[in-house]
Amino acid sequence: MTINNCILYTFPKIHDRRGNLTFVEGAKHIPFNIKRIYYLYDVPGGSKRGGHAHKNLNQILIALSGSFDVMLYDGKEKKTVHLNSPQQGLIIVPMVWREIINFSSGAVCLVLASEYYSEDDYFRTLKSFRSSLR
Ligand code: TYD
Fold it and tell me: Is the CB of 94 under 6 A from ligand 1?
């Protein structure tokens, strides 16, 4: 798994004069069933989230409100993806280090996750992540 597997999905949008509605169906619009959702909000200016990689977890990040940047690193290559649309979701596959920065004021980051929370699934240091890649 590399950062090339971390792609942007565009979800369906139903627009009428009352506004927009977007929906995401597990294993249909995204390649896994959703076991957990969580969201980041009230992020103070200048704060950084993430700073870890996962062994088995797939996640989709959605900027429900506002915007932020997701920096991805697979041990070889890096890329940064700017998220600013509730209609788009960035998949982060296992074995990719991520840092989320530049949160705009009022930003909400919704995360759809393929597994329940497990601390054992985390690489919390770049050192442990890099050595697992060798
Ligand atoms: P962490 O994954 O480090 O957050 P972020 O990716 O935003 O930097 O999680 C922060 C804390 O919250 C950590 O103590 C683990 C806990 N946590 C849960 O209990 N359940 C969850 O689903 C998540 C994502 C985190």
Answer: no
